[in-house]
Sequence to fold (235 residues):
Amino acid sequence: QKEVEQNSGPLSVPEGAIASLNCTYSDRGSQSFFWYRQYSGKSPELIMFIYSNGDKEDGRFTAQLNKASQYVSLLIRVSQPSDSATYLCAVLRDSGAGSYQLTFGKGTKLSVIP
Amino acid sequence: GAVVSQHPSRVICKSGTSVKIECRSLDFQATTMFWYRQFPKKSLMLMATSNEGSKATYEQGVEKDKFLINHASLTLSTLTVTSAHPEDSSFYICSARDRRLAGPHRADTQYFGPGTRLTVL
Fold:
């Protein structure tokens, strides 16, 4: 069973602080990793993807990947109340015949306190 | 970014009826569309992968005779929930992959629709 694990939270951080979201995955062969943000009652929107070990920065967001530890994280700097949402970690897997599918974690609910 | 629409956005139906949900890619062609289901406070679960012009591939545990998927064109896939029951009440979300952008790292080209909330009474 290919799984993606996240702490469901809620994770509460004060406005302006750094929010750190973590994700582990079981399939060592996974190559690509994604972070989505989902507001209540809405569909997911892509924040970042990463496929090389190390850090990848985009504005206030930094994704970190450690394939040896099967661990991927998302840092949100200068957190804002509008960042309050559920963050989904997703792993891309090869389902065969050149087809790729996303497996999602259960998500971490982030609450940024003004 | 590319736009994917779903219709209807919300539907309430009686138990035993069938409900059709449409997923359209508005400004790109999608050879592959995906259908997900999300229960409250749960993650997205992939139900099936829909390829234009061929039969859908269903995930384990998803009844293909209950969840009928048709992908008749490069911009439209439909999901029909047949003989719906209260336990089918959920948030159904489709996504579409832009055929011009292929490759293992290109899930950023998988655009999600806004979702359809189905309530079966």
